[in-house]
Amino acid sequence: MQWIEARVVYEGQEPQSAIELIADAFDEFGLQGVCIEDPHEEPAEGWGEDALPRPTHYAVIGYFAANELFEGRRLKLESLLKQLADRNRIQTRVHYRNVDDEDWAESWKAFFWPEKITERIVVKPTWREYQPGPGDIVLEIDPGMAFGTGTHPTTAMCIRLIEKYLQPGDSFLDVGTGSGILMMAAAKLKAGSGLGIDHDETAVGVATANLSLNRIDPGRFQIAVGDLLENIPRRFQVITANILSEVILVLLDSIHLVLEPAGLFICSGIAAEKGHAVLTKMEQTGFRILEQQRLDGWTAIAGRLNRY
């Protein structure tokens, strides 16, 4: 199948906030093939000899099917980017190129190396070698071409907070599970059971395959198609959401319906300047803030429900 890559390049102040808003524009099309280029990101293992050149600018990249719908989508994307320029003074330029399935699925893999997220937890791509040290917990992942590597700051902070606060036997819900990386971490940290939900069926397939790859019991840890907290069958002791801050604010309106009393909520994907809004909403909806982490312009928050 042929695809058209739309690369939206940004240069300016507050890049993390701008990148999030540009990603929101792509979200209007329901795309899951969105990735971020950050010129300052540095893999822990260094750059391999086969690595692609380091990006020179911040960019958000989405992929559209090369069909009769593309022209309308192109015009809509450029209209949304113009609105960002008018309302938020976010100046961008967009470049298009044709790619095929093999280019889309494989070219980015040169950037992805094993990375130690905490003292114990290592995220390892399936196509790289890694010799575990004593006590290492290895999360082996093939994220597919659309769901992230698990080493982005927002994901890394989530994993650190899960490791710190999750108790053995806790029930675990991951909203917007993507590659399933947080489910894998929770399972290997001895959560009792888990459910990962995502609105995209392809993500569900990717996450299910990753859990199987890590020999995680499918009877206790399951992945399902779902939209935020709709039709969640039971309450959970720990809920995570590594998604956009605007979605987290909506999620907080009904989270008490599926979170156990005194349950833990960990959220990330929050641009640093939006952290205060999420903190305020959490406190308004009955959470006691346990911790806030910041990394590379992003924020993650852990809070415990102290009412309902």
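the 2nd protein, sequnce then structure:
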Amino acid sequence: MYSLNVPVPGRVAALARDLGTRLTAADVRQRGEHTLVCKRLGSGDEPTYHELEARARDVLRGEPPFEVRVGGVDVFTDVPDDEEPVVYLAVESPGLVALHERLCAVFDPVDGIEGDDYVPHVTVARGGPVERVTDLRDTSVDPVEWTVERLEFWDAEYGQSVSSVSLPR
């Protein structure tokens, strides 16, 4: 599966790691594993990666930088086809949501998690006791804000960036 991701600043990754230390029974994301998915592009069964990247770059042409804010902790308790629950850092970004919608017009949305169901977030951990996980919702965090000036094409199979694209000013 390939996706277009927003690079996560070190302050956000550190916040996610700190929260993860409170969830000893969960599968906690490790250093370098924190991502913010803008849009999944394909599973590899469709066009080649290069074709997916070219189509995405066409959509991104002229896309300006946008603001992102991480300001709280939340939990998905009803996750399709995945281990429940999922603790995440809540992301606020009208620009990111608008870009996601533009990409959904070109790349089919994944049912249940994209399109109208898209919730921008940075995953902290999956699994663990529901009571412990939902307690984290009340955790107060200092907001982190940044301007997204670059997006990464991400290969989920290898857990790494394949290439990136700058957003013009």
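Helices lie at 10-20, 49-60, 94-104, 130-135. DSSP finds four helices and nine strands in the chain.
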